[in-house]
Specification:
Blueprint lengths: L5 E4 L11 H19 L4 E7 L4 H10 L3 H18 L6 E4 L3 H16 L3 E11 L4 E3 L4 E4 L2 E4 L7 E10 L5 H10 L4 E2 L1 H12 L5 E2 L1 E2 L15 E2 L1 H6 L1 H4 L9 H6 L4 E5 L3 H14 L8 E4 L2 E3 L2 E2 L10 H8 L1 H11 L6 E2 L2 H30 L3 E2 L7 H14 L2 H6 L3 H22 L9 H22 L4 H10 L22 E2 L12
Parallel strand pairs: 1-2, 1-13, 2-3, 9-14, 13-14, 15-17
Antiparallel strand pairs: 4-5, 4-8, 6-7, 8-10, 11-12, 15-16, 18-19
Helix pairs in contact: 2-3, 5-6, 11-12, 12-13, 13-16, 13-17, 14-16, 16-17, 17-18
The structure holds ligand ME8.
Length: 511
């Protein structure tokens, strides 16, 4: 059965430094949702890219002694390479310095002017260049003689300049109605409550242009004002679908976006400003914004400015990409922050990947190769212990679609590893090696069930650890187009004899 179209995005990254684990985390979880939906027969469009304008990037380019565009060309390439290293299945990589994006931003701006939602005035207030965000006076504190935002901890500066404003205050009531009507627009619900509380406390009009620097998209027909980088950046989600051409197939198939995956620090932009801009421009808002937690290192957000970075590329080189993907998803629970360490990474690789799933595949494959000439027949004698395993598996799989649809990756991964543990236990209890001499039929039956379990687990784990599971599914001779989740509706993967190919070690134990 064909599923609905699914448009999923990661945040587009600031090319202001080396990619870090937070970037990797945002990208990997979005990739898991994209892969899961593809395996569930949906047509998927998965977007990532780089957010290249604004003062933060202009400053970084100046520091590097480069023209901003040359600087962005260089660093954007590093992020593009990261998508390969992380094994992302993105369908597009957008840069906000591309023409298609300028057309889209200009069009949105003009629509907001036409609807009367933008007016010219003067901004006086606090601005954080590192967050590219405006803050109210009650969000400012003093630390070591410097003004900082209490929301992010970043330093802020006082800004006074001519500015265009978006009438955000006029959208307060309509936003609250929108959240009410779409109760899963923001997940997890703790973040939804946070946003509703903020909106209820009163929204001020938002400054949407700057005049004190030049690196950005100029306001149409104006040579003084640069469009605020967040209005520019958020529009990337439309530009990639060829907006403003609303008759374009991509736009028709995929807008409104199904899911924006973001970190909790950029929730306000996605859950308040973005739907307000879109509603004002008469464009349907996205269906969901999922705000994940932070990757912490010793209880602090991992970031370049804090100097506590675990470099994703070094980890991939040492341990492997499937290992990093699995660990991040297992360790960081639904929407919360997660403290990561090399020690925990190693113990997770050993316990779940090497000793559990990897061992399950290896022991079954090598037994069949050594004792059954690499094939097992299908038999119909289902014993009570077979039934028990199948029922337990069903109990674990029945909610998996809804766990994924609610972005609850943590519950998902726990259920699938439990199925793997149960299957290992089944083999320990059934001891097929003891049946070699006098009950080949029963031995065959056990192995058939074990392979069916391995196939299911591999398809379920495929979005998280695509490399290892593809090797197993190849070795099971399952055609790529059959590696889908239809078995969740009760069918079997194998209906006949199964022939297997050789399977190399999937995960080396870390000693
Ligand atoms: O925010 N743990 O870009 P960015 C988890 N350009 N996630 C983290 C993190 C951490 N320690 N540090 C950063 C931007 N992130 C904008 C987005 S979208 C229209 C524009 C996450 O490069 C962060 O929460 O600063 C965000 O989701 C993403 O990395 C990109 O951060």
């Amino acid at each position: 059965m064909k599923g609905a179209n699914f448009y999923i995005t990661t945040p587009i990254y600031y090319p202001s430094g080396e990619p870090h684990m937070g970037h990797a985390y945002s990208s990997i979880i979005a990739d898991v949702f994209a892969r899961f939906k593809r395996n569930d027969n949906c047509k998927v469009f998965f977007l990532t890219g780089t957010d290249e304008h604004g003062l933060k990037i202009q400053n970084a380019a100046e520091k590097a002694g480069l023209d901003p565009l040359i600087y962005c060309d260089k660093i954007s390439k590093v992020f593009r390479e990261l998508t390969k290293k992380l094994n992302l299945s993105n369908d597009d990589f957008i840069r906000t310095t591309e023409k298609r994006h300028y057309d889209s931003v200009n069009n949105l701006w003009n629509k907001l002017i036409k609807s009367g939602d933008i007016y010219l005035s003067k901004y006086k207030g606090w601005y954080s260049v590192s967050d590219e965000a405006y803050y109210n006076s009650d969000e400012i504190a003093e630390k070591n003689g410097k003004k900082i935002s209490t929301f992010s901890g970043s330093s802020v500066e006082w800004v006074e300049e001519d500015s265009f404003f978006f009438k955000l205050s006029a959208w307060e009531k309509k936003l609250l109605e929108f959240y009410e009507k779409n109760d899963k627009f923001i997940l997890p619900s703790s973040r939804r409550n946070e946003v509703i509380k903020f909106v209820k406390s009163g929204l001020k009009d938002l400054s949407v242009s700057r005049t004190s620097f030049t690196w950005g998209i100029m306001v149409p027909n104006n040579n003084k004002h640069v469009i605020y980088v967040w209005l520019d950046a958020l529009t990337n989600y439309l530009s990639a679908l060829n907006y403003p051409n609303v008759n374009d197939k991509l736009y028709k198939d995929f807008w409104p976006a199904s899911l924006h995956v973001i970190g909790k620090d950029i929730l306000r932009f996605h859950a308040i400003y973005w739907p307000a801009f879109l509603l004002a421009a008469d464009i349907p808002p996205p269906k969901r914004v999922f705000g994940h937690g932070w990757i912490l290192s010793g209880d602090e957000k991992m970031s370049k400015s804090k100097g506590n970075i675990l470099n994703p590329l070094e980890i991939i080189n040492t341990y492997g990409i499937d290992q990093l993907r699995y660990y991040l998803i297992k360790e960081v629970s639904h929407g919360s922050d997660g403290n990561i360490s090399l020690k925990n990474l190693e113990s997770c690789i050993n316990s779940d990947l090497a000793n559990n799933y990897g061992n399950l595949c290896q022991r079954v494959f090598s037994f069949i190769k050594n004792n059954c000439e690499s094939k097992v027949n299908k038999t119909k004698n289902i014993t009570d212990s077979d039934k028990k395993l199948l029922n337990q598996t069903e109990a674990f799989t029945k909610d998996l679609r809804s766990e994924m649809n609610n972005q609850n990756l943590n519950n998902y991964i726990k259920s699938v590893i439990n199925i793997s543990s149960l299957t290992n236990k089944y083999i320990n209890d059934e001891e097929p090696w003891k049946l070699k001499k006098n009950n080949i039929k029963k031995m065959n039956n056990i192995l058939h069930i074990a392979l069916e379990q391995i196939a299911k687990i591999s398809i379920l784990f495929n979005p998280i650890i695509p490399n290892a599971t593809s090797k197993v599914l190849d070795a099971l001779n399952i055609e790529p187009e059959l590696r889908n989740l239809s078995f969740l509706d009760g069918s079997n993967i194998f209906t006949n004899e199964i022939k297997i190919k050789e399977l190399d070690i999937l995960f080396k134990k870390i000693t």
